[in-house]
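Hi there,

I know you've been waiting on this one. I reran it after we fixed the sequence typo, so this is the corrected version. Both the input and the resulting structure follow.
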Amino acid sequence: MIDSLRIGKIVYSKIGSLVNNRCYPLIAENGTTYPFIIYQRDSLDSMFCKDGVYEDEVNVSVRVVTDTYNEGIDLAQSVREAMTFNNYTIEDGGTYTSLMVQADEEFNNDAYIQTLIFRITINN
């Protein structure tokens, strides 16, 4: 069975070091300093054939949170580069391919937020 529910492990391994490991699933810890990243799994679609599931597509949102706009853009570009990959294989034997499919930005609570959405395809 494809272990797509643990996609956060892949996301963290690809982008955690960009912000000195201030990279969190769903919500940042209280008192976290800028910049930091929040990521979450938005959807998971399984592809079936007569033999069962052969592929999952997972959409993951990555939010880059900074106190200046330019820093946010630069960090978002670094995230995009780190999260765009083909045929990445880990110990579970799955092959992962990731592509950015959407991006937007906002200003909220005195922070600049760049949201990038990636579609990750997992074959086992």
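Quick highlight: The chain has one domain: 4-123.

Best,
R. S.
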